[in-house]
Amino acid sequence: MLGVDVSLIFRLAALAIMITIFYTFLKQAGRDEYAYMTVLAGLAIALLWIIPVIMELFNAVRAVFQLY
Q1: Burial code of 43-68, b = ≥16 C-beta within 10 A, e = fewer?
Q2: Which of 11, 33, 50, 53 is most exposed, with the fewest beta carbons within 10 Å of its own?
Q3: Would you state the pLDDT for residue 33?
Q4: Which UniProt keywords apply (predicted)?
Q5: Phi/psi of residue 65, each to 5°?
Q6: Residue 10 phi/psi, 5° resolution?
Q7: Overall average pLDDT of the 56-62 stretch
Q8: Long-range contacts, stretch 35-44, CB < 8 angstroms, 24+ apart
Q9: Cα(19)–Cα(11) distance, rounded to whole angstroms?
Q10: What's this model's pTM, rounded to 2 decimal places?
Q11: How far is residue 9's CA from residue 28's CA, in Å, rounded to a whole number?
């Protein structure tokens, strides 16, 4: 069974809040390039946290349908 940890959801929410704050400050300061880079960095971090969960899901689907 998939065990999605609740702490992952809280970490993603905290990351989203931090990225939103940084993006807003940088955008208002006229640093658009840095604002977009901050968003891309946040997206990369989020993907690094989510990819193992997605792999676990695919492995569970393979096990259920015996697709080895």
Answers
A1: eeeeeeeeeeeeeeeeeeeeeeeeee
A2: 33
A3: 96
A4: Membrane, Transmembrane, Transmembrane helix
A5: -95, 5
A6: -70, -40
A7: 92
A8: 42/15, 42/16, 42/18
A9: 12
A10: 0.80
A11: 29
For residue 18, give Cα distances in angstroms to 13, 14, 67. 9, 6, 40
- Residue tagged 């990819």 (tokens): 51
Which one-letter amino acid corresponds to residue 66?
Q
CB–CB of 24/36 below 8 Å? no
Tokens 């940890």, located at residue: 5
Closest CA to 25 of 45, 39, 13: 39
Q: Which of 43, 53, 48 is nearest to 15 (CA)?
A: 43
Identity of the residue numbered 27: K
For residue 65, give both structure tokens: 């349908």
The amino acid sitting at 43 is: L
Q: 45 versus 6: which is more confidently predicted?
A: 45
